[in-house]
Amino acid sequence: PARESRLAEWLYEAGIGETRAALVEDGEIVEARIERDGEGPRLGAIVTAKLVDAGRGRKGALVLLDHPDQPHATLAAVPAPTSIGAALTVEVTRMALRERGRDKLARTRLAEAGAAVTDGPDLRARIAASGAPVIDLRPTDADRLEQAGWSELIDCVRTGHWAFDGGALWVDATPAMVLIDIDGEGDALALAKSGARAAAAVIRRCDIGGSIGIDFPSLPDRGGRHMVDAAIDAALPQPYERTAVNGFGLMQIIRRRDRPSLIEQICLDPVATDGALLLRQAERATGTGPLTLAARANVIDYIAARPGWVDALQNRTGRPVRLMADPAMKGAGHAQ
To answer: How many CB atoms lie within 10 A of CB 69?
Structure first.
């Protein structure tokens, strides 16, 4: 830990439509976080709300939050004589989450009496609270985020393929759990141990919460399985609960899940991901005269629907911005 506090530092970038941060240690990204406009109220936010459904037996209550887009949220417990339409003040205990094929509403509970309405700690405040130093990056500076491997990280998240020495992980977020498959040749125990370290690193890097299943090579020897359990415990920061690796090579890990993971943010909203990458590229584009952002139509439409972002880009670069839909463009497109 003493070594980590000396070497690890957060790189933070207040981008347009998205803030991003990477905890970099020995030149490697060990934690990566993004926070996007429009993700709904943050964890810890205190929000005024209106009761729209009291639920059955005071469970399963639903509130309408006084927040942009007026999202619904579940409410843990409603005091008995509360009528539909009543004004309440609630605290967000889990942010809204996206899953394949369905979205999960934010969870709330009644706020303490007299609690002041607040947005909750943003990404910059949360990383500052970690105790590691925070370096605020500007688009005119050297691109330290990219030097640490930001684009490669996003590519790994998108493909679900993470190479490590001697093998690779395949990571897939299903509605039930995040599955991590360890793939490789050679000695099963050596592969399982290095796969355990790699899996723990990805869980930490992408802030994966909820239920996680890791599929190790089958290890008939109980002593070998204990070594794999120990490798996970040494590499994955608490808090979490886990099973031991069973005879089929499967381990289940449960971690708190109170905000979306990087995998959910990037894979389940590919247009927002490409829009953020394009705006990031545009902020760093050199040259004078009009700045043209070219990408496939849904990325251009996504940016065009948020005129404040275009205004911010023009202010930051001092150049007029043109948006151009190009069906031949792949991925995040191009800014020049």
So the answer is: 7
